[in-house]
Design a protein that fits this description.
Helix content of chain B: over 70%
Number of strands of chain B: 2
Largest sheet of chain A: none
Structural class of chain B: mainly alpha
Oligomer: heterodimer
Order of helices and strands of chain A: HHHHHHHHHHHHHH
Shape of chain B: globular
Number of helices of chain A: 14
Distance between the termini of chain B: 46 Å
Strand order of the largest sheet of chain B: 1-2
Radius of gyration of chain A: 23 Å
Number of helices of chain B: 11
Strand content of chain A: under 5%
Distance between the termini of chain A: 54 Å
Shape of chain A: globular
Strand content of chain B: under 5%
């Protein structure tokens, strides 16, 4: 923990400051709810970032774990009357189990096979939710899911609950990144063969990353269900999975901060597009789909490492330049002094 | 018995479409080691552009021809300006890139044509023909005919012509091919053109049978890819056979189990196959594994 504060103390400080400030700068209930949704998405994308950036895998079905979590908690609390807290624990465990089974099955797969297997899994889950009408309510969905009664259950308290979870997930992931596990992951990402020969159990690490990402998505899904109060299978499909993918890719696959910043950025872009849709009457269809697709293509073409690592590199380059200029200055001064002495 | 035959007949028709998509995937994969996840969008564009052009009072044949040319052009441009640009990217980036292209095309389609489904007139009349009690739409026969002609032409091109030998040379060893004066870049472009054209034709012939809309490409793409994996990635003949099998299994599942689960059945087959034998029924033919 101490190491994290040493390394990222400044970033964490800025993050906490902005996070706490946001709902008070935007006192409008609508923007608070936007903030809540962005927080929920951030929990998923930080998990996805562990899978993509660290383990070097890809998941095109992340929204399915989100959906499994949401429906697990919703069904347990609505049909069986369990408290939301228990539902949330189940919402982490059940998608984790699914991720374990799927991850175990596909641990040997790579590249395109993995992409397709997770994509297919996403479809199966969405179809399963739609078809299992007796439990999930089918395409009509579920209503009157109990709300969370966290400090009165107002929009503001929900905001802090969810961003509290985001903070925990963020710190957990940063800690992971800075530990032996994180170094092992980076080794896998660079070269699996080299990592294996160094004694890293690549399969196990990949599986762990996959399970953790499934659990994060599940927790977020459970919170989503209790926040919304209603559920239908529509948001748990490919569109959402691609949105998560875009968020991770734009921020930078290899950076946890990138996932967070990418999520916030895409959240704002989505809101901007909604506003634009109100101003420009001719906008029909999925304008956001066009934007996400374009972002994915442009980022991979021109900035494959993503925004955050790029900015950090530019910043460090600037620092280095400054340091070099100072060093040069000092050297010149020394030379001048030496000349004066002789 | 008639019921069973009916399901098999339906399965053959959808299987034929999957076969075209699968062969399109493999044509590109063999030459450039890229899995073009936007393959399904070629089908969608073929159908939608034809509908749009007919809406502008162009005759059926001309509209279809223009649509095929346009989609072919899109395929070539995609290769030239996007895929070729990131040649050295790792497989994950390439997956994200082609997913991005497919998302972009889908978004633009929904922007231009909206989210409604469109129907295209069948090539000949709507009356189904009865063969031994099995009802077959006339359009189905057109589909099967188109599929078989395309598969035959592709086989002829790849196995019997110099051009096909050049394409094969690039897939076996691009460096050696280049030394022999064959340009892998050009062959890649050709592969995208072939995939675009065959995809567009498939999209046009299925449009009258199942309505066409901006989002049909995703499912068709995934199922075609499933077939390509089932048959063994890189093996066109295996992929075509696997595609027909997939179509039949899916149709039987929809008929006897539940029509809502139709798509899930195809994907369960895919995941099962990946677990048991990732190299496919007929074995992987090309070298690289899943692009890695």
């Amino acid at each position: 923990m101490k190491q994290i504060i040493d390394k990222w103390g400044k970033s964490i400080g800025i993050y906490l400051f902005l996070m706490i400030l946001f709902p008070f700068v935007m006192p409008d209930e609508y923007y608070r709810s936007v903030g809540i949704i962005i927080g929920l998405q951030a929990i998923v994308t930080i998990g996805l970032c562990l899978v993509m950036g660290l383990a070097g895998q890809i998941s095109l079905g992340q929204a399915s774990f989100w959906g499994i979590g949401a429906y697990t908690s919703a069904v347990l609390t609505t049909k069986y009357g369990l408290p939301p807290f228990v539902g949330l624990i189940a919402a982490a465990v059940v998608p984790g189990l699914f991720a374990f089974i799927l991850g175990r099955a596909i641990a040997g797969l790579q590249g395109y096979y993995l992409a397709m297997a997770t994509l297919a899994f996403g479809y199966i889950v969405q179809i399963g939710i739609t078809e299992w009408e007796s439990v999930t309510g089918g395409a009509n969905g579920m209503i009157s899911i109990p709300q969370m009664t966290f400090f009165g259950g107002s929009e503001l308290s929900m905001y802090f609950l969810i961003w509290g979870v985001v903070t925990c997930v963020l710190l957990f992931s940063l800690n992971l990144l800075n530990s032996r596990v994180g170094r092992a992951f980076r080794a896998i990402h660079k070269s699996e063969i080299a990592a294996t020969s160094m004694g890293i159990d690549v399969r196990k690490f990949k599986l762990n990353a996959f399970v953790v990402s499934g659990m994060f998505a599940g927790i977020s899904g459970g919170l989503y269900a209790h926040y919304m109060g209603i559920l239908d299978p529509q948001p748990f499909g490919l569109h959402e999975s691609i949105k998560f993918l875009t968020m991770v890719v734009i921020g930078g696959m290899t950076s946890i901060w990138g996932a967070l910043i990418g999520t916030i950025l895409i959240g704002f872009i989505s809101e901007g597009l909604i506003l634009l849709g109100e101003v420009v009457p001719g906008l029909q269809g999925d304008v956001d789909t066009i934007v996400f697709g374009a972002i994915l293509v442009l980022i991979i073409m021109f900035m494959p490492e993503g925004l955050v690592p790029r900015i950090r590199a530019a910043f460090e380059k600037g620092q280095a330049k400054k340091a070099k200029a100072m060093a040069d200055d000092a050297q010149r001064k020394q030379q001048v002094e030496r000349k004066a002495a002789t | 018995m008639t019921e069973l035959l009916q399901y098999v007949a339906n399965g053959l028709v959808s299987g034929g479409i999957y076969a075209i998509v699968a062969v399109g995937f493999i044509t590109i994969y063999n030459v450039s080691k890229v899995i073009n996840l936007a393959q399904g969008e070629f089908l969608m564009l073929g159908g939608m552009v034809t509908v749009a052009l007919i809406g502008m009072n162009l005759p059926y044949g001309l509209a279809a021809l223009l649509a095929i040319l346009l989609v072919t052009l899109i395929g070539v441009l995609m290769q030239k300006y996007v895929i070729a640009y990131v040649k050295k990217a790792n497989p994950i980036s390439l997956i994200i890139l082609t997913i991005g292209i497919s998302t972009l095309i889908r978004g633009i389609a929904s922007f231009i044509w909206g989210k409604d489904a469109f129907a295209l007139e069948p090539i000949t009349s709507n009356e189904p023909i009865s063969i031994g009690g099995v009802m077959i739409a006339q359009q189905s026969i057109w589909i099967l005919a188109a599929v078989l002609i395309i598969l035959f032409l592709l086989w002829y091109l790849m196995d019997k012509t110099i051009l096909g030998k050049k394409i094969n040379a690039c897939s076996v060893n691009p460096m050696a091919a280049r030394l022999m004066g064959i340009s892998p870049t050009k062959m890649s472009m050709l592969a995208f053109a072939i995939s675009g054209a065959t995809g567009a034709i498939a999209g046009i012939v299925i449009a009258p049978l199942s309505v066409t809309s901006y989002d049909i490409g995703v499912l068709l793409g995934i199922k075609g890819f499933s077939a390509a994996i089932l048959g063994g990635l890189g093996n066109p003949l295996g992929a075509a056979v696997a595609a027909f099998l997939l179509g039949i299994v899916e149709s039987l599942g929809a008929g006897y189990i539940s029509s809502g689960m139709k798509d899930a059945i195809a994907f369960l087959v895919l995941i099962g196959m990946l677990l048991i034998k990732p190299s496919g029924i007929f074995g992987e033919r090309s070298v690289g594994k899943g692009g890695l």
